Structure prediction request, 416 residues.
Amino acid sequence: MAFSGLLQHMGNFGRYQIILLFSIISLTVLLNTHNLVENFSGAIPAHRCYIHLLDNITSESKLPENLTTEDLLRISIPMGVNNEQEQCRRFRQPQWQLLNSSDLAINTTELQTEACLDGWIYDQSIFTSTIVTQERVSDVTRGPAVLLSRLPNGNLRTNPFVVFWEMVSMPQSSATYKVKKMVLQSAMREELTLLKRSSKKIKVMESPIVCKTIFLLYFLRFSAIFFLYGVLTDLKNLGSNMFLSQALLGAVDFPSKCLSFLVIKFLKRRPSIASVLFLGGFCILINIFVPKDMPFIRLGLAMLGKGLMAIYFSISMIYNHELIPTGLRSRAEGGIIFMSGLAGSLSSLALITRQYFEPLPTILYGTAPIMAAICVYFLPETLNLPLPDTIQDVERSFLALISNENNLASHFNRLL
Prediction:
C-alpha cells in the first residue's frame, strides 16, 4: 500500500493536521511581519543636505531678519530634475544672486556644488526615526542570512508520522490500534523499499523529466516571490500613504484565499496558474503608464496583482505535491524554499536599477511572472490524478501530456 492509499485509508485530516495547521499559521503571521518591517524601519524620508546658514543655531542670529527658510534653501540647494531640490548635493558657497528676482534665468547647473559633507536633514513628519536617519548601514546582511536559512533540507520523512499521531490517543489493547499498527509497519517497510529503489540522487539526475519538472517549479516560485517582494518593498511608489498601502495589500489576501478554494476545486491546474501569473504581471506593467498623481489607481492595480499572486501560492502548494514523487517531495520543497529566499533577496536589489532607468524595476517585476505563465504549459495537468509515488509515475504523466499534444496536433491538421 503506497502512501496515497494509506492516507485514504487512515483519513487525511485528523487531529495532527489540525494542530499542525494552527501552528504554521501562528508562526507565519510573525514571519510576514518580520519580512515587511523593513518598509518602515528602513524607509528613506525626504531629505536635503545640512546647511550651516539654516541648521546651525549660532549662525541664525547673524542673518538678515527678512530672509525666510525658502530663501535660504534657494541659495544653498541646487534644483534638480522636475524643478525639485537636490537631496544629495549643495552649493559650495551661498549663491546670494539667486535671491534677486531679475536673475531667475541664471543657469544653476554651472555653479559649483558638492556632496553632503556634513550629513543630511530629514523630514520627520511621517517617520521620526529609521535606520537611514540614524546614519546606520542598511541591513544588507539580511538577504544572505535569509538565503542561508532556507537551504534545502534533508529528506525528512514525516508522512508515516501522520498515522503514528492518530495511534497515540488510542488504547493499545483496542482492535483499531492493532490494525493501524500493522498498517503502519507495512507502509513504513514499503516506503523504505521505495526510497532505496527510486529516490537516489543518481536516479533523479538520470531522469530528465524529473529534473525538468523540478527546475520549472523552482522558476515558477522564484518568479512569484520576485514579483511579490518587489511590490511590497516599493510601497512609496504606489501611493502617498505607505501605511494604508501596506494594510490594503495585506487585506486583499483574505478574498483571494477564499476565491482560490473554488479555483482549486473546480478548475484545472495549468490554466489557473498561467492565468493568475500572467494577469498579475500585467497589472504591474500597466502601472508604468499610470501617472504618480493618480495613487489610488496605482494602488488598486498593485492590489489586484497581489491578490492574483495569492491565488497562485494556494494552487502551487497542491500542484507541487501532485508533480513531485513521494521520495523526493521533502527535498524538492526545501529547494523551493531556497529559491524563495533567493528571489526575495534579488527583488530588493532590483530596486537599484531605478537609477539607470526609472521603470526598469517595475518591468522586471512584471515580466518575471509572465514568463513563468508560459512555462506552466511545459508541465502536465494533474487535476483529479493520484499523487505520484515514484519517478516512473512522473514520467508517465509527461508521456501522457506528449501523447495528448500529438493527438491535438493531428486533429488540427485534419481540420486544415
The chain has 18 helices and four strands. Residues 226 and 344 are 6 Å apart (CA to CA). Residues 136-159, 161-169 have pLDDT under 50 and may be disordered.
